[in-house]
Design goal:
This protein starts with 8 loop residues before the first strand and ends with a helix. Helix 3 crosses helix 5 and helix 7 packs across helix 8 (201-212). Strand 3 (38-43) and strand 4 form a beta hairpin. The longest helix is centred in the middle third of the chain and has 28 residues, at 137-164. The protein is built from twelve helices and eight strands. The protein is of the alpha+beta class. This is Transcriptional regulator, AraC family. InterPro entries: Homeodomain-like_sf, HTH_AraC, Tscrpt_reg_AraC-type_HTH. It holds the Pfam family HTH_18.
Length: 273
């Protein structure tokens, strides 16, 4: 399928979604810094609220609905064309935890130092995107995109590591999600997580259902599915290597699991991309 030529980078000030590009959900990865006011939204069927000093990160093709902006809302909004970002991962394995984390948790609450780093990162990438009279424009933009990703991943991973250093904080449901983020590459059974939390699998399912309406096994499958998709998109890894990376005893077991969560085999998925 031919790619449509959209602007690669958009940086703007916004007070509502009317200021966003019409196709932002499908064509762009969205980065929003809330300067004042707040915004409520449904993201992948979960409710969220972003307030002053917080960032929202929406990957392209995320399910976003019911956007509600406060009357005084103002934000710096940065859009990156989805192929420019995904085609230029410096190393998918480095950023996979950060990517998957923000497919489930789209809000970042940085300290002042990291807030300034992120905004500076926006401006640097935008500046390189408009300097298109350079004969090495494509190469420069690719390198700047990779620097952008490494800076952002460093901030995201730092946040994840701070959370992991305090695993006893939060509710049982929050602790369960922390454990799934950290362990789903190798552990995909509800019993493993209930054991880590010293509760029964049945009680863990009740907790998840009461908080989100989604069972523990479904949460584990969501996180695992996201990792599988990211790894399959990285064509530097063959299917057997991915199966081994995720702790499957054989490629055939991995293939059966992928068919269960994606509806098609790993080879068929790769043919589609």
């Amino acid at each position: 399928m031919d790619r449509i030529d959209y602007p690669k980078i958009i940086l703007l000030s916004a007070s509502s979604a009317q200021d966003f590009p019409e196709n932002y959900q499908s064509a762009y990865h969205s980065h929003i810094y809330c300067e004042r006011g707040s915004v409520n939204f449904i993201f992948n069927n979960m409710p969220f609220k972003c307030g002053k000093g917080e960032f929202i990160f929406w990957l392209a093709d995320s399910k976003i609905s019911e956007l509600e902006f406060s009357s005084n809302f103002k934000a710096t909004v940065f859009f990156v064309e989805k192929h420019l970002l995904t085609d230029n991962f410096p190393s998918l394995n480095i950023g996979i935890d950060a990517i998957v984390h923000h497919q489930i948790n789209p809000i970042l609450k940085p300290d002042k130092k990291n807030k300034d780093r992120i905004l500076k990162n926006f401006k640097m990438l935008y500046q390189k995107s408009i300097e298109n009279d350079n004969r090495f424009y494509k190469e420069i933009l690719k390198l700047q995109m990779q620097l952008f990703l490494l800076e952002m991943w460093d901030i995201f991973i730092d946040q994840l590591e701070r959370r992991e250093r305090s695993p006893q904080s939060g509710t049982l449901y929050e602790r369960f999600l922390y454990l799934v983020e950290a362990n789903c590459m190798k552990n995909r059974e509800v019993r493993f997580y209930s054991g880590e939390l010293n509760i029964t699998p049945k009680y863990l399912n009740q907790i998840c259902k009461s908080n989100t309406g989604i069972s523990a096994s479904e949460w584990i499958q969501r996180y695992t599915k996201d990792r599988i998709v990211l790894l399959l998109n990285n064509k530097k890894l063959n299917i057997s290597e991915i199966a081994d990376e995720m702790g499957f005893s054989s490629r055939s077991f991995f293939t059966r699991y992928v068919k269960k969560v994606l509806g098609i085999s790993p080879s068929e998925y790769r043919q589609q991309i």
